[in-house]
Design goal:
The strands form 2 sheets. Strands 1, 4, 5, 6, 7, 8 and 9 form a 7-stranded mixed β-sheet that branches. A two-stranded antiparallel sheet has the order 2-3. The protein contains 6 helices and 9 strands. Helix 2 (136-148) runs antiparallel to helix 3 (194-205) and helix 4 (215-224) packs parallel to helix 5 (252-268). By secondary structure, it is α/β, with parallel strands linked by helices. Strand 2 and strand 3 form a beta hairpin.
Length: 316
């Protein structure tokens, strides 16, 4: 056989062998794959398990550190009690009516018969009990005592009472009515140290209602009998001035509006502040709308404050 013939036979054999191998690979690739094996089953839950004992790592003790923490030591002295045990707190924020006070404070307080009207909202009485429908006088006492307790040794107070009678008689029976006058507690400023506070509180607790509303006289005494040392002048009333005319025939309200600015100017020049507080409803139930001058009480008080650059507040 020639060389060419031999090469042809060899090529043919190689071609046939290649075709057979290709078919085998295709058949092998198309054969179904082995079924998947479950990672988690009854024999194997697939979770990590600790391989040994559980160890806690603790910070190593420093060389030479053999100290043991000392337990807390209780203080030798008990906690300090509040300065005002009756109020339950050492509060110097002042009362809701008067605000924060200091220095020399002069109270002009209405204690006329109309202050017995029980038309005040819920509040605390002098003993700290919550009471509904307090009288105006009881509410005045409670707020004034609360304010006194916030003052210190360097503060001073006195009280001008806006009601009274020449003979000291109380209103309420035949022959007891008289020309209303005014009264004072001390007639001078008293330091608010412990003893002074106790005396002032005792005085306020003992106040009773008197006849009349002599606003003109009370304001004149307040402005002319204490010099220029007044830091705060508080005027509290529940009605318009009564009686309608003064002894000399002047009308009560116009006389106040006309003359008070002249009385007040000297103390205002030294920084005195005026606070006017109208207490109670305009027309309390059970009381006449004319006797005692209830009509226009808020109008009188607010206008009086506005005319004299004072602060006005209505409480009820």
């Amino acid at each position: 056989m020639s060389t060419l013939a031999r090469l042809s036979v060899a090529c043919g054999i190689s071609l046939v062998a290649g075709i057979l191998c290709f078919q085998i690979i295709i058949i092998e690739a198309e054969s179904p794959a082995a079924p998947p094996e479950l990672f988690r089953n009854a024999a194997n839950d697939g979770a990590d398990r600790p391989s040994g004992r559980l160890l806690l790592r603790v910070k190593a003790k420093q060389d030479g550190d053999d100290s043991v923490p000392e337990p807390p030591v209780e203080p030798d002295e008990p906690p300090v009690e509040p300065n005002n045990p009756e109020t339950g707190a050492d509060d110097d924020s002042g009362s809701d009516w008067y605000g924060k006070l200091g220095g020399a404070t002069l109270f002009v307080l209405d204690v006329s018969v109309s202050m017995n009207a029980a038309d005040m909202s819920i509040g605390e009485n002098m003993d700290g009990d919550v009471v509904a429908g307090m009288t105006r006088l009881d509410a005045l006492k409670s707020e004034t005592i609360r304010s006194i307790r916030t003052l210190g040794d360097n503060d001073m107070i006195d009280f001008v009472l806006l009601a009274g009678c020449v003979n000291g008689a109380r209103h309420g029976g035949a022959g007891q009515q008289c020309e209303p006058v005014t009264d004072v507690w001390q007639g001078r400023f008293v330091p608010c140290d412990e003893a002074g506070q106790a005396r002032a509180i005792e005085f306020i607790r003992g106040m009773t209602a008197w006849y009349g509303t002599p606003t003109y006289r009370a304001l004149k005494r307040a402005c002319t009998e204490y010099g220029t040392d007044i830091d705060t002048l508080i005027f509290l009333s529940d009605g318009v001035p009564y009686p309608g005319r003064l002894e000399d025939g002047k009308q009560h309200i116009p006389a106040i509006f006309s003359e008070f600015p002249g009385w007040y100017a000297p103390i205002a020049a030294y920084g005195c502040k005026l606070k006017c507080i109208h207490i109670g409803q305009e027309k309390p139930p059970g009381y006449s709308t004319t006797f005692g001058g209830f009509d226009g009480a808020s109008r009188f008080m607010s206008e009086f404050a506005a005319r004299n650059n004072g602060e006005y507040k209505h409480v009820e």
